[in-house]
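Pinned message: reference record for Oxygen-dependent coproporphyrinogen-III oxidase, mitochondrial
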Amino acid sequence: MTIVVFVKNTAQVTSRRCFSSHLKGLSRTGESLSSRWPHISSSPPATWSSWTTGLRFMSQGTASRSSAGGRSCRRGALALSGAAAVTAAAAFTGFLANINHLQRAEMATLVPRAVEEEQEEGDILARCRGFMSPPVTDVEVLQRRKGEMCTRMEMLIMETQAEFCKALEAVDGGTFKVDRWERKEGGGGISCVMQDGKVFEKAGVNVSVVFGNLTEEAAKQMRSRGKVLKGKDGKLPFCAMGVSSVIHPKNPHIPTVHFNYRYFEIEEEDGSKQWWFGGGTDLTPVYVNKEDAFHFHNTLKEACDKHHSQYYADFKKWCDRYFYVRHRGETRGIGGIFFDDLDGPSQEEAFGFVKSCARTVVPCYLPIVHKHLRDPFTAEEKDWQQVRRGRYVEFNLVYDRGVKFGLATPGSRIESILMSLPLTARWEYMHEPALGTREAEMLEVLRNPKEWL
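Predicted structure (tokens):
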């Protein structure tokens, strides 16, 4: 059960609502797609937070830095349960009036879940109405195959795309261009891109659902990771789908964020299927901000801990190893989580974990965006952002597995694959920041990854 607490100024109002009912009747004017697919154009309430079985406020100010308060104080969490929580909420009016930027931003940007747990296997068409576009697979086909993992995953990635796009539109004031494309070999995708907005220089959120026969080059890449693939007559039928996003803000004090969650299924010669999930979320700031890093990593850890106490630690290390620019000797950013080839402990449990991770993309990033919206910056800070973007490009083109797979797959949408690249970047010969500067501090973190929690 999820209870949403809206907090505006000093008043608290408790409300229960699900995302699907919240969307009813809302539509975007000037939308070129059919009116069957309404979009939210209004901004969220000024300040609101999520309350699950209690009351939780996060503070990155004095409480998070105090050692006397113990673990719960450092994590900035205050939990109350039962009827006492409702009574106690009013007592924290003074506390609410003094919370810092990140806390207020977190409460301003947490959104209701796209679908309540008990409704996730509900009517496909009703759920599709909240998407940025009709899904890649025909709705009637999805209805017939509602219980299959391919259908459930496609619905999840469509919901993730819609939720994130609408949150970004609310803070930027701009509108995503919705670009549907088809792959003649099978499947297609939906690319949502916003360029030259007020806040985001380039923001892209892509969904792809493709199928056909795996190429030998793609199969070779998978076998190099230990996959045993047995095709029939040299063919390996596959289905792959995922949602991916990269956001490049204009302000150098707002970090770049990336996430990707995907599902892969291969049918072998005997009719059996191999399947696995992959994905992750990571942050690439231009300058070190410990409060932002704590909030981002702690949000991911809370999602991981719902499924296994070791997931965050393992997948954080994997992320630091994966997003590593070897020829520079530095990580791409301050990490997050990353995993691949996840095929256990069961398909249902693996899907549940991926679902929890996908639902962190708004609450782990949008509070940071709100916190830094009005931060001033200098020309020198903008130049440093451009240099760091150059490193981002180097990783994506040289090392990123998804880019390499996409470029090796016939009929792939090149524009969508390279959507992750920024509009602008910079490469300076032999660039090295001066000792003692904030730029040097950032480079030190990238060369020696930290534990942020």
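Pinned by admin. Summary line: The mean pLDDT is 79.
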